[in-house]
Design goal:
The chain is α/β, with parallel strands linked by helices and about 230 residues long. It is about 35% helix and about 25% strand. It contains eight helices and twelve strands. It has a five-stranded mixed β-sheet, sandwiched between helices. Strands 4-1-5 form a three-stranded parallel β-sheet. The protein has a two-stranded antiparallel sheet with strand order 2-3. Strand 8, helix 4 and strand 9 form a beta-alpha-beta unit. Helix 1 packs across helix 7 and helix 1 packs antiparallel against helix 8. It binds glutamine. The site of glutamine has 12 residues, from loops. Belongs to the binding-protein-dependent transport system permease family. This is Amino acid ABC transporter substrate-binding protein/permease. It is found in: Cell membrane. It comes from Microbacterium marinilacus.
Length: about 230
């Protein structure tokens, strides 16, 4: 550790099932977000108390000060920066649609007049809404990524909008989906706190992230879940 341990414990909200960033493997909560923030905490001498709330619930918990921060594959956007302070970006994402392997849908135009699933409060929802008029989409919001996936499998939607690293990870795990379109609304994921509050936590996050990048531990964590070059 680069600094002496303190007694500080921060309560951090995260998503529920959002592999490879956070998920339960049957034994424990793990994933890139979890391992990264736990390693930063160790490096910076604080303790993380994780709360698996779901994405929208975690963001709302932060706004109502029930948690100190959110680490949930949360994209840094101009709109969110009005409300939150973000640490340095730690992963680059972007939104695509996932369709079942056997689907007729090959590109965005094939979504014309169809129903798509989105997750409430996410960039995926923002992206689908940006295409709503042009493609005459019906958009059904869900709370969890697993709910979107189930909706498509059950035929209640033909596609779901999601960060492509998450759809892509599922594909490598045999989800039976494929990606269509090109990544949109790209941008970095950031650790968030309420604007103007907890600046010291953002400082610790950034210092710890820089240390993990310098030591190679950042790369090790990423490679644990998605391999090098991904
Ligand atoms: N990256 C997306 C966003 O910030 C989705 C995050 C998530 O679903 N956990 O909106």
């Amino acid at each position: 550790p680069a600094s002496a341990a303190t007694d500080e414990t921060y309560v951090i909200g995260t998503d529920t099932t959002y592999a490879p960033f956070e998920f339960n493997d049957g034994t424990s909560l793990k994933g890139i977000d979890i391992d990264l923030l736990d390693a930063i905490a160790e490096d910076q001498g604080f303790t993380v108390e994780w709360q698996q709330l779901g994405f929208d619930a975690a963001v709302q918990a932060l706004q109502s000060n029930q948690v100190d921060g959110v680490m949930a594959g949360m994209s840094i956007t101009d709109e969110r920066e009005q409300t939150f302070d973000f640490g340095d970006g730690y992963f680059t994402g972007g939104i695509q649609f996932g369709v079942l392997d056997g689907s007729d849908i090959q590109d965005l135009e094939d979504l014309q007049g169809q129903t798509v699933a989105v997750k409430t409060g996410t960039q995926g929802q923002t992206y689908a809404e940006s295409l709503e008029d042009e493609l005459d989409l019906s958009i059904t919001p869900y709370n969890e990524t697993t709910d979107m996936v189930d909706a498509v499998k059950a035929g209640q939607a033909v596609a779901y909008a999601e960060d492509y690293p998450v759809i892509g990870y599922g594909i490598t795990q045999g989800s039976g989906f494929r990606l269509i379109g090109e990544p949109a609304l790209g941008g970095d994921y950031g650790f968030a706190v309420n604007k103007g509050q907890n600046p010291e936590l953002i400082e610790k996050f950034n210092a710890g992230l820089a240390n993990l990048k310098a030591s190679g531990e950042y790369d090790e964590i990423i490679e644990t879940y998605i391999g090098s070059g991904s």
